[in-house]
Amino acid sequence: MTALADLKAYLRETEALTCVAERLGWDQETMMPRGAAEQRAEELAAMESVLHARRTDPRLEDWLARAEATTEAEARLLDLAGRNYNRATRIPARLATELARLTSLAQGVWAEARAAEAPAAFLPTLAQMVALKREEAACLSEGDLYDALLDDYEPGATHRVLGAMFDRMRPRLVSLREKVLGAAHQPPALDHVFPEATQLRIARICASAFGYDWTLGRLDLVVHPFCSGSGRDVRITTRVCESDPFNCLYSTIHEVGHACYEQGIAAEHALTPLGRGVSMGVHESQSRIYENQLGRSAPFTGWLYQRMVDAFGDFGVADAQAFHAVVNRVNPGFIRTEADELHYNLHVMLRFDLERQLITGKLEVADLEAAWNVRFLADFGVAVEKPSQGFLQDVHWAGGLFGYFPTYTLGNVYAGCLNRAMRAAVPGIDAALAEGSAKPATDWLRENLQRHGGLRPPRETIVTACGFEPTEEPLLDYLESKYAAIYRL
């Protein structure tokens, strides 16, 4: 066998074992008995020990030096394999194992602390996590500690570039928010009970409408929705609040966006470094365009309104036009995952600033809750009333995902660009959405972005799909046009 063939065979086994570890994590969040938490932490730590040894095997360096690419895909595979090897060899095996063990334990500690509104029960664990992530960043860093962690989720991005983009976005977002909240016309909030079983039935209908392949996945309930898997096993989750069906429905559509990206990657890339979404920013572009530009559009909400009436009867919304306004109602609420499109990016910017301060040592864990509450009041004009509304609401820091949050807004920016390009290229998107089908849109996304997986770097992936360099302008233009119509500005 050639060096390239040896390398491909080895990477295939490593990717397969990675999938096994991911399935353990999925099970932990969905089905694992509560009493198994400590054992599961040891299982995941053992898996990470095996995976770290494989990812740092000296044979990889030899194969990478001798392998010769003859196609674009092979060249990109070698590039990604080399990058992954370089990062893995900088992390001591002890640290990789400790992080896997603590991540498994911390998510259970976080869930219980959140449910009990007991931040003191979570802070010691979070302090351990921050210490380990600072250590990991120091191992990886060639300059800025936070950038070293950000690179795991958005290769090539820096906090300075993202921070500058956020600074450009904030004035237009805040200005539009003030106009909307000051408008004479204000859509009402829902005031009805929506039973869980019926919500889940409609959620499954919505998932099918967006092309989720049920033969390759499943839907389960969790505390914090997520998508897990790649290739031919991609699972989604959601949560239910019986007073707010949009929590369930749009969390489901969001996770379907992630899942359809993974399900749509070309089969020849399976179980290779090319067989996954190329970055979290690109991944979030799929979940956010499914959820917002498509799922919250007037044609789709018009179709969804009839499904809701059929399922729940009269729930206090007069017609499809009023329902579209209710779905897109702007409210400075506490919870990021329930936030409207105007406030969502402000939620992300808050987390981006705080987690960067945690990693660089400018903010200590003991001061995090107070810092969060002060910043939230300044940005949103309302005071946090309990920890589950504040710094305990997201699972990300318990999972060690420092550097993930800014990719949500980057994904929104990418989604704005993709939406502009897609609608210019594909007639009939709205007509299909009005019939409950996202197929023309999702077919375009699959052909122009999803099927390529990791074939190109993140920004190049977006440029190739859109035909232009991504900027925040299409997103902001879309938001201003949409909310001007809804709020009669």
Automatic annotation (TrEMBL):
Cofactor(s) required for function per UniProt: Zn(2+)
Keywords: Carboxypeptidase, Hydrolase, Metal-binding, Metalloprotease, Protease, Zinc
The EC number(s) this enzyme carries: 3.4.17.19
Top-level enzyme category: hydrolase
Coiled coil start-end: none
Pfam families per UniProt: Peptidase_M32
Active site annotation, chain numbering: 255 (proton donor/acceptor)
Cofactor info, note text: Binds 1 zinc ion per subunit.
Biological process per Gene Ontology, one example term: proteolysis
GO molecular function: metal ion binding; metallocarboxypeptidase activity
UniProt entry tagged with the keyword Metal-binding: yes
Function description: Broad specificity carboxypetidase that releases amino acids sequentially from the C-terminus, including neutral, aromatic, polar and basic residues.
Family, per entry: Belongs to the peptidase M32 family.
Record protein name field: Metal-dependent carboxypeptidase
Lineage: Bacteria, Pseudomonadati, Pseudomonadota, Alphaproteobacteria, Rhodobacterales
